[in-house]
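Quick one: Leucine-rich repeat-containing N-terminal plant-type domain-containing protein from Panicum hallii var. hallii, C-alpha cells please.
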Amino acid sequence: MAGAAVPVPVSRHAAVVVVLVLAAAHGAFCGSSHVELAAGVVARGGNAPSLRAPRGNVTGADGAPAPAPSGSLAGCGCGPRPAPWQFLNQKLEALWPVIQAFKKTITCDPLGVTATWEGPDLCSSYFNGTKYKGFYCDFPPSANTTLTVASIDFNGFGLCAPSLAGFVDQFPDLALFHANSNNFSGDVPDLTHLPFFYELDLSNNNFSGPFPDAVVPLGGLLFLDLRFNRYAGAVPPPVFALTVEALFLNNNGFDGRIPDSFGSTGAKYLVVANNQFTGPIPRSIYNTSATLSEVLFLNNRLSGCLPYEIGLVEGLAVFDAGGNEIAGPIPLSFGCLRDVEELNLAGNQLYGQVPDVVCLLAKTGKLRNLSLSDNFFHSVGHHCMELVRSRVLDVRRNCILGFPDQRPPLECAAFYADPSKHCPFIPHIPCDLPGYHHPPAKAALPAAAAHGHGHSQPQGQGGGN
Ligand SMILES: *[C@@H]1O[C@H](CO)[C@@H](O)[C@H](O)[C@H]1NC(C)=O
Ligand SMILES: *[C@@H]1O[C@H](CO)[C@@H](O)[C@H](O)[C@H]1NC(C)=O
Ligand SMILES: *[C@@H]1O[C@H](CO)[C@@H](O)[C@H](O)[C@H]1NC(C)=O
Ligand SMILES: *[C@@H]1O[C@H](CO)[C@@H](O)[C@H](O)[C@H]1NC(C)=O
Ligand SMILES: *[C@@H]1O[C@H](CO)[C@@H](O)[C@H](O)[C@H]1NC(C)=O
Ligand SMILES: *[C@@H]1O[C@H](CO)[C@@H](O)[C@H](O)[C@H]1NC(C)=O
Ligand SMILES: *[C@@H]1O[C@H](CO)[C@@H](O)[C@H](O)[C@H]1NC(C)=O
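--- reply ---
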C-alpha cells in the first residue's frame, strides 16, 4: 500500500471519520461516540468534541461569579496562581496546577496553544472564550452542578512532551483524551481510577516500547486508537477483550501471532494493518459475527490458510487481508458475506478457482471491489467474468490461462508443485445462497461443492491452520 510507512494521520486504510456526538456530554458515555470507518474514505475528521449542555448560572462552589483578571508574566508563559475565588469551583482550582505543571514539560508548541493556558478560566471554551485551548468542560454525573474538565482534545496541536503521566491521570472527571498528531511519548499513565473515561486517541505520536499495559484494564473504554506510533512486540491477549467499539493498532511495529482472544472482540472496527504480525488469522474470528463490520489485516506477514470461519462473520462490510502470505483456496463460506462491499486478498498465496459464489455477491449482495491480484488463482467462476470486465474484480498477476497480465507459467507450475502451500478445501456453504440452495435444496449444495472440488487444485487433506 503506497504510503504505508509514512506516519501521517490520513491514510487509505486508517480511514476513519470519528464523529463525536457528545450531545449529553458526560452522560454520553452510554454510547454517544459514533465511529464510522467507511471503506474508501480517507479523511480523518477533526474530532473536536462539541460539548453542549444546558447552561446554568455561572457560579462556583463558593458562589462567586467568575470574572477573570489574570496578569500573566510576559515571557514566562506561566501566570501567577489565581486566587481561589477566581475559579468557578474547587475542582477547577485543583486542576490549575496540573495544567501548569504539564505546560512546563512541553518542549514544542508550533501553534502556540499553551499561551492560552493561563488564568483561572479553565472552562473558557464552554463560554465560547479563547483561553485553555484543548480543554472542554461539562457537568460530570457525579456532581452535576459543578462544571469541570470533561475532555481534552489536543488533535493536531503538534505539542512535544516526554510524558503524559501526572497530567491525563489527574483529571478525575475526564471522559476523553484525544492527542492525534502530537509528539508525545513515554508511558501511558494509569487511568483506571477515572470512572467516566471511555475514549483514548494517541495516534500519530512518538510512543514506543511494548504495548501500553495501562490501557488493558480500562473497563469502560469504547475507543482506542494507538495507530502511527512506534509500539512493538506482542499485543497482549486481553486487548481483544476490551469493550471497545473501535480498535486501531495499525502502523506500529507489533509482531507475533494475533492472539486467539481475537474472537472475543466486540469491536465494530478493528485495524491491525501495517505491522509485523505473523501466523494465521485466528479462526476464533467466527465469534465476532454479531459485531464486526470492518477489519483490516493488510500488510503484515500473516500466513496459514485462509480460515473458513471468516465466512461466518455475517455483518462484515470490509475485509482486507491484502499483502500477507496467506495461502489456500477461498473457502466457499465467503459466499455468505452478504454485506461485504470490499474484499481485498491481493498479494497473498491464494490459489484454485475464484469461487462463483463469491463473485455472485456483486449481484445478490453488496460487493463492489474484489481484489485478488498477485496470487496464484488458476481460474475464475462463471459470474466472475463479468466482474473482471466491469473492473470490480482484479485478477492481474495470477495463473489464469488466456487472461492478460498473468504470472509466467513456470512460476505457476513451481507454486502448484510445492505441497507446503496447500490447504484443505472446505466445500460446505453455511448459508442459503440464491441460485445455489434452490430450486431443489437437496441437489444444490453438493453441486456447488463438486464445482469447487473440480477446480480447486491442489487440495490438502484434513487439518486446519
Ligand atoms: C443566577 O443567579 C442570580 C443570583 O445569584 C439569580 O438572580 C438568577 O435568577 C440566576 N439565574 C439563573 C438562570 O438561575
Ligand atoms: C457559544 O456558541 C454557541 C454556538 O455558536 C452558541 O449557541 C452559544 O449561545 C454561545 N454561547 C455564548 C455564551 O456565547
Ligand atoms: C443531578 O443529580 C441529582 C441528584 O443526583 C438528580 O436528581 C438530577 O436529576 C441530576 N440532574 C441532571 C441534569 O442530571
Ligand atoms: C514530531 O517532531 C518531529 C521533529 O520535530 C517532526 O518532524 C514531526 O512532524 C512531529 N510529529 C508530529 C506528529 O507532530
Ligand atoms: C521521539 O522519541 C525518541 C525516543 O523514544 C526521542 O529520542 C525523540 O527525540 C522523540 N522525538 C520527538 C520529536 O520528541
Ligand atoms: C467469544 O466471545 C465471548 C465474548 O463475547 C468470549 O467470552 C469468548 O471467550 C469468545 N470465544 C472465542 C472462542 O473466541
Ligand atoms: C479496490 O480495492 C483495492 C485494495 O483495497 C484498491 O487498491 C483499489 O483501488 C480498489 N478499487 C476501486 C475501484 O475502488
